[in-house]
């Protein structure tokens, strides 16, 4: 193999049995260095229970998969001695408590190891990813902890340039991979021209192979997409079945993480789109949801995790991962519901329960019994008569800093597919007052549309973790943003009911334990 791009990061070959691997990891100098790096961090914005890599920068999550009882998360990592993208690696039994593992895929013959996906087979895991200045690469692993990866040959399986140097009718970029029958299929992300204009739209290009090495280009994969923006691209694609339909998750450098829902026409090998939605309701940065990494579950659901962009410079780290989310086909089959992975419950410490109470109209009620910077807050509220209902978190006593979550009942879009004139509700997450730091860059409010029935109570599950807030609404949608309070006393929680009073039927509060101890 060429040494032009050989990495400067130490590389280790591990044994092929689990007991030996565990002993070798206990003595591994890379892991010792990572552990020391974790112990050195005192940054008050570094999350306690959201995954953050141990050293250097972080970018896209990659290849999330389950292998021999363990979940494996890969990600673009920037090792300190060679800050080109390598694949970082962490492992978990429950998607919440993560164990760092050594870097696993190193550059060469590619310059950098960019994003990709994995396919779990009975006897191995296949990783397909983009190698810059080379093309789309394949590496495989079959050992118990996926520590040893071997690249398929010494060249990309889908090169950037054809042998005759003519421009191909497709882009070679972030890939995903699946199997149908006796053939492998792969998408390569990119754009194609929109009609006769000079504009372009997202288009994933479909390839097929019998042996993983020789790939035949078929055609553009997506059909009937009316949901992505002009100039969106289909980076970081993940194509899997969900219930009795299919979903394509991806990242757009224009407008962040999103998905398309539809049906897989296996005769024509086309994805016929019927619905689409964003996980990010504005640009990806600053402070927004970035790229997905997703894996199918045996019950027909999808597990997905995203990285999130910073809004304030940090020394030695920058991005974080969201909590893993479970995607389920909605009850009407034409949308996707979102909830946090259930194992997050294992982080809960002693619960504080407040008895039902009224929030008077037009008065801010500060909840003196609960406060913090790393917690879960669960509320069930009857606020249907109020103009809007508001939860403020990470609030300083003088209100210099706070992050606002506002619920506007039936103030969203109409959804004719529900057969009624009930409008969606709008949930807004506003970080514009989250920090008084002079170099903090907030984002416009995230405005999420979600259906809440007229006889249904509002249910909010709010996760606050120092510099990240995630809000799950009625187990149907999620909105998230980065926040950076700098006042030491920005730990308060308050409620506001505008116009008319609201009744809090249930409120539970848990401090959440660190996953890094």
What does this structure look like?
The protein is mainly β. 4% of the residues lie in helices and 45% in strands. The protein is built from two helices and 38 strands. The strands form eight sheets. Strands 26, 27, 29, 34, 35, 36 and 38 form a seven-stranded antiparallel β-sheet that branches. A six-stranded antiparallel β-sheet has the order 28-37-30-31-32-33, with no helix packed on it. β6 and β7 form a beta hairpin. The longest helix is centred in the N-terminal third of the chain and has 12 residues, at 29-40. It is globular. The two termini are 40 Å apart. The model has no long low-confidence stretch (mean pLDDT 95).
Which descriptors apply to this entry?
6-stranded antiparallel β-sheet, single chain, mainly beta, about 45% strand, 38 strands, about 525 residues, globular
Topology:
Blueprint: H1 18-26, H2 29-40, E1 58-67, E2 70-77, E3 86-92, E4 98-105, E5 113-120, E6 125-131, E7 135-141, E8 150-151, E9 158-159, E10 175-180, E11 183-188, E12 191-193, E13 200-202, E14 205-209, E15 216-220, E16 222-223, E17 235-242, E18 245-252, E19 256-265, E20 270-278, E21 289-296, E22 302-308, E23 320-321, E24 325-329, E25 336-340, E26 348-354, E27 357-359, E28 365-366, E29 374-382, E30 388-395, E31 403-408, E32 425-430, E33 446-450, E34 458-465, E35 468-473, E36 477-482, E37 492-498, E38 502-512
Parallel strand pairs: 16-20
Antiparallel strand pairs: 1-2, 2-3, 3-4, 5-6, 6-7, 7-8, 7-9, 10-11, 11-14, 12-13, 14-15, 17-18, 18-19, 19-20, 21-22, 22-23, 22-24, 24-25, 26-38, 27-38, 28-37, 29-34, 29-38, 30-31, 30-37, 31-32, 32-33, 34-35, 35-36
């Amino acid at each position: 193999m060429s040494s032009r791009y050989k990495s400067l990061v130490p590389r280790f070959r591990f044994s092929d049995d689990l007991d030996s691997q565990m002993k070798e990891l206990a003595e591994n100098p890379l892991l010792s260095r990572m552990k020391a790096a974790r112990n050195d961090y005192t940054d008050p914005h570094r999350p306690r229970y959201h995954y953050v890599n141990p050293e250097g920068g972080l970018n896209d999550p990659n290849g999330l998969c389950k292998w021999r009882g363990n979940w494996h998360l890969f990600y673009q990592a920037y090792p300190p001695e060679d800050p080109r993208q390598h694949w970082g690696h962490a492992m978990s039994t429950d998607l919440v408590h993560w164990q760092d593992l050594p870097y696993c895929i190193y550059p060469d013959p590619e310059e950098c190891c960019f994003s990709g996906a994995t396919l779990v087979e009975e006897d191995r895991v296949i990783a397909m990813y983009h190698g810059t200045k080379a093309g789309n690469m394949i590496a495989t692993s079959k050992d118990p902890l996926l520590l040893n990866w071997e690249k398929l040959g010494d060249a990309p399986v889908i090169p950037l340039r054809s042998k005759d140097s003519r421009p191909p009718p497709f882009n070679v970029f972030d890939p995903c991979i699946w199997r149908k029958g006796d053939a492998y299929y792969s998408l390569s992300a990119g754009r194609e021209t929109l009609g006769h204009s000079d504009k372009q739209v997202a288009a994933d290009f479909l390839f097929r192979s019998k042996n993983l090495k020789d790939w035949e280009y078929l055609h553009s994969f997506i059909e009937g997409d009316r949901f992505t923006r002009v100039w969106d691209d289909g980076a970081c694609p993940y194509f899997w079945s969900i219930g009795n339909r299919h979903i394509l998750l991806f990242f757009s450098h224009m407008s962040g993480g999103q998905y398309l829902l539809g049906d897989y026409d296996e005769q024509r090998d086309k994805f016929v789109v019927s619905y689409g939605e964003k996980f990010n309701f504005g640009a990806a940065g600053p402070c927004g949801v970035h790229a997905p990494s997703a894996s199918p579950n045996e019950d027909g659901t999808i597990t997905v995790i995203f990285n999130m962009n910073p809004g304030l410079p940090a020394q030695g780290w920058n991005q974080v991962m969201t909590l893993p989310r479970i995607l389920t086909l909605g009850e009407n089959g034409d949308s996707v519901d979102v909830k946090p992975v259930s194992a997050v419950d294992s982080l809960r410490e002693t619960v504080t329960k407040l008895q039902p109470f009224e929030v008077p109209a037009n008065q801010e009620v500060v909840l003196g019994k609960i406060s913090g910077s790393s917690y879960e807050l669960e509320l069930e509220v009857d606020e249907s008569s109020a103009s809007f209902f508001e939860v403020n978190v990470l609030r300083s006593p003088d209100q210099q800093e706070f992050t606002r979550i506002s619920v506007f009942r039936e103030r969203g879009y109409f959804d004719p597919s529900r057969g009624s004139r009930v409008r969606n509700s709008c949930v807004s997450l506003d970080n514009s007052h989250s920090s008084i730091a002079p170099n903090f860059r907030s984002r416009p409010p995230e405005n999420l549309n979600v259906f809440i029935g007229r006889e249904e109570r509002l249910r909010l599950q709010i996760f606050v973790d120092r510099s990240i807030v995630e809000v799950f609404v009625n187990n149907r949608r999620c909105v998230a943003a980065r926040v950076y309070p700098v006042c030491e006393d920005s730990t308060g929680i308050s409620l506001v009911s505008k116009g008319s009073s609201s009744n809090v039927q249930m409120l539970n509060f848990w401090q959440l334990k660190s996953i890094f101890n």
